[in-house]
Amino acid sequence: MKKLTLRNIMLCLALSFFASSAMADKTTLLDQTHAAKGLKCASCHGNAEQREAVTMTKCIKCHNTEKLAKKTKDVKPTNPHENRHFGTETDCAKCHNVHQKSENYCGSCHLRFDFVVP
Amino acid sequence: MSKNDSNKSNEIDQYTRNVLQNGLSRRSFLTRAAMGTGAVAFTGLTGSMATASTDDCVKTAKSSDGGATLEFMPKPKPISDRDIVSTQTFDVVVVGAGASGVPAALSAAENGAKVAVLQKQAIVVSQGNTGSGIDLANSDKAAVEAMVNRLMGDSAHRCHPELVREWAYNSGEAVSWVIDRAKKGGAQIVDQGTKVQHGIHGVTEHKLNFVTSYCGPKPYTTGDGMRALAKVAEKAGVKFFFNMPAQQLVQDDSGKVIGVIAQDRDGKYHKYMAKKGVILSSGDYQNNEAMCNFFIPDLKNFERKQMDRTGDGFSMAYWAGGVIEPIGHTKMLHDFDAGPASMCDMPFLAVNRKGERFVNETVAMSLMNNYLRDEENAGHYSQVFDANYMEQAANWPGKLYSPEQMKIYMPEDPSPKIGVYESQINTYSANTLEELAVKLECDPKTFVANVKRYNELCKTGKDDDFGKPSAKMLPVVKAPFYGIHRRMRISTLCSGMLVDKNHQALDADGNKIGGLFVIGNLGGGFYGGVDYPLTVFGLSLGRCYTFGYLAGKYVAKL
Question: What is the tally of structural domains in chain B?
Fold first, then answer.
């Protein structure tokens, strides 16, 4: 819990600094992006004292996977949001981390899949 | 011990006897643990089981002869009825929608059953392109038996002959059926016949022909083909439940499997009752580290091609009393995508990741992983040849691609990449050996030194280093030089649960487990060697289609 508390403090700081500015910077972590849109920790982690782990079903309450796949259909070399492993339902967390830097999950097997993951 | 011998065939074959004695089941685990505390030994199936276990043995041994345990697969508490939010009843419930599950579901439906398919992912998932069967009407029986004999040899004579014959004598019909039905769903699938079966030469002098289904060309695969087949299955009344991973089997008091409990993405449990039977077709366990380390420690450093293959079906069948084949499962590692598939077994100079020659190159690609198990090589090697290859290798087994044709496999060449997986192609050409080494990610100095050494051996015609025949010693001397950087990664693992010839799971006493059937790569007994053999191209998918087709029909008629 200590870690989370620290994160909360960081978040509050981040909020107070950046709340009004656009979050286009690539180095911005997704927790800041979410906070900037007005989401609270509890929006994803729940209100209980023992914070809930966040499953993909939480993400898809706001992020429609099919719409997302359409939005990225022209991304080269391939659409990361529609693939032959999981269709449009790849677990978001395979690539997108919220409290740390995201990763290019596809690139470990697929040569030249050089995605920059927000 | 159960006295119910009525289910048991009178004579137990060698394969089944071996798995019963050495395989892993909950009973063998519990009994072996009890043995360690000094309890009296138990009487095995035949009453002849070794019983000399001591405390010491159990403390130190970690092998399948009494010490091996699957403690990483503890049986979970049954999900209680009050946690179930919905219950539906079918005749047949299929777990896993792939190359055996989808055919099984359709086959069961065509035979009158009401069928549900539970799939972990959001889509039908399958890999590969080719699925083969024997064209029985155009083959001599002596040839079919010669093929069976060869496949048993390929599997180090450790497979179940009865299951190999189930494939041999039913696969032509089953594969033709898959082609016909998948076409109705709009699949890009054709019968390539016998001409693509380069690996069967020398198997028999008698007439032997194949039905070779091909879903392609790439990037179209059997995954797309099975998705088309699933549409046909849906029309035939099969109900698919996606994002619905099975968690536990439901058993009645006698141990008969009567249903499956699955969990949706919101964490809620749903029960699917099966009046006739449950067919498990949920694939291998390559993404389950503990299972891999236990059954195939060789896999440690290889990359996985698939995702989410956590061996769920193994766990469920094992908890229900099933027997997992003993340690030393068969694996499948190859790379048909880096360069032409038809050149994969051509014995050009081969170097490892450092650039060293490491093997007699007549070793088939399907076995090459055994030389590359360490962390550094991790399955990588490169085939190297020079500008003379079209003339000098013209009579080698397989089919050569000309430099022009090979461009589709070259990421540096601007030509459009048609008929290949663009993110897996890995073939290069260069005007100097040093330049080629860099492209193949080898150390240039080591690479050049090894090519030089190889060229000297070629001159003498005697391979003092690895004993390759002189006719296969082609020097690498004339630019441009070519390299195909192949990556042996895990396509699948293909050993599994002990079943009888009708694909029904057996328990540790050799009795049938009522209502439980196992097919596809989760089914045991079909292989047995260290590696999946490439003698019959498409044997793996052919077996999946065939056993799906047969099991679906069999269970529907119960």
Answer: 2
